[in-house]
Amino acid sequence: MELKRVVVTGLGTINPLGKNIQEFWEGLRNGVSGAGPITHFDASKFKTQFACELKDFDPNDYLERKEVRKHDMYAQFAYIAADQAISHSGIDLGKTDKDRVGVIWGAGIGGLDTFYQEVTAFNANTENPRFTPFFIPKMIANMASGNIALKYGFRGPSITTVTACASATHALIDAATYIRLGKADMFVAGGSESAINPAGIGGFNAMRAISTRNDDPKTASRPFDKDRDGFVMGEGAGALILEEYEHAVRRGATIYAELVGTGMSTDAYHMTAPDPEGGGAALVMKNALDDAGLKPEDIDYINVHGTSTGLGDVAEPKAILKVFGEHAYKVSVSATKSMTGHLLGAAGAVESIASILAMQNSIVPPTINQFELDPEVDPKIDFTFNHAKERQINFALSNTFGFGGHNATVIFKKLS
């Protein structure tokens, strides 16, 4: 069976660096940190008092008031990014076979904010328990994909992928697979997350997973640095329109990239820690290269998972060396989480968009906040520290790894 080609024809995002693609790219290119003191709640009693929040976000600027009431923040973000991507794609919804258009969306947690608020309210009044009828629909992780499909009338497959921080990349992979097999013409695919609340910050604090550098939030996310002390929580969404190539050509769509390779693997090592030798990370990159029919030396840029955690930032470079050999010293690498923070279930979509924008603009975004390289990390790898640089990028690879050992990789090709 001849597989169909999959291309990207629309992009949308709302994240700590910007409320649209243009603002996001400006932040990336200029090495802007999205971190700052938490404003969503009083975090003064928490070990971590900062995060990468959306700036000046008011959902009423994007959604009708009744829609805001019905949807958790993670789903609001999904709506906004999806709407941008659909508009960006130039698709004429009135002339589109909506039976052939689907939504596959990733969320690592889902409606954590709603869950926290409702349970807190219950505990404050156990004598007269009251829950909003929207509690369950707002909380469950699949509702973002279902509501996007409902809003636009898309009747193709509607699925939610939940693989922690790999969720959005798995959404892209699933959507690409359906298109390759001829089961759909187009997907809205991506992910969203909103976990900057007492439960999210407190939970990750208990795991010692997030930075506590409260005196200097903007330099707290420092991948591969010797003094890193954990990731910085982010929030937002990223959406891509994935489309069958011939379908896109027939409607005269602008094609921003081709998704040529996908890979998945599992560490099968530990609940939250990565394989310290990068075995699962190496396997997923190899699987993606094999799927694309590429050699390691074909890759020009890697957007690494690079969270600023002690174990992960050592394991991933080891994996790159295993897969790429000497070419590991010629490929450009960057960890854009140093700027956006870690968007959890949305990370893979936002970082795929960053990779595509890097290809389009021939600019490698930087890994900011590098002060002293961890001695366990090979210094010959070009992590694009602190400043963006110009480079022709024909193939870009993006990694995401999630708690539970879930690994997902996608490879994009620049089309001239």
UniProtKB/TrEMBL annotation:
It catalyses: (9Z)-hexadecenoyl-[ACP] + malonyl-[ACP] + H(+) = 3-oxo-(11Z)-octadecenoyl-[ACP] + holo-[ACP] + CO2; a fatty acyl-[ACP] + malonyl-[ACP] + H(+) = a 3-oxoacyl-[ACP] + holo-[ACP] + CO2. The active site is at C165 (for beta-ketoacyl synthase activity). InterPro entries: 3-oxoacyl-ACP_synth-2 (IPR017568), Beta-ketoacyl_synthase (IPR000794), Ketoacyl_synth_AS (IPR018201), Ketoacyl_synth_C (IPR014031), Ketoacyl_synth_N (IPR014030), PKS_Beta-ketoAc_synthase_dom (IPR020841), Thiolase-like (IPR016039). Pathway: Lipid metabolism; fatty acid biosynthesis. One of its GO terms (molecular function) is 3-oxoacyl-[acyl-carrier-protein] synthase activity. GO terms for biological process: fatty acid biosynthetic process. Residues 3-414 form the Ketosynthase family 3 (KS3) domain. Pfam families: ketoacyl-synt (PF00109), Ketoacyl-synt_C (PF02801). Keywords: Acyltransferase, Fatty acid biosynthesis, Fatty acid metabolism, Lipid biosynthesis, Lipid metabolism, Transferase. CDD domains: KAS_I_II (cd00834). Its EC number is 2.3.1.179. PANTHER family: 3-OXOACYL-[ACYL-CARRIER-PROTEIN] SYNTHASE, MITOCHONDRIAL (PTHR11712:SF336), POLYKETIDE SYNTHASE-RELATED (PTHR11712). NCBIfam families: fabF, PRK07314.1. This is 3-oxoacyl-[acyl-carrier-protein] synthase 2. It comes from Prolixibacter bellariivorans. The lineage of its organism: Bacteria, Pseudomonadati, Bacteroidota, Bacteroidia, Marinilabiliales.
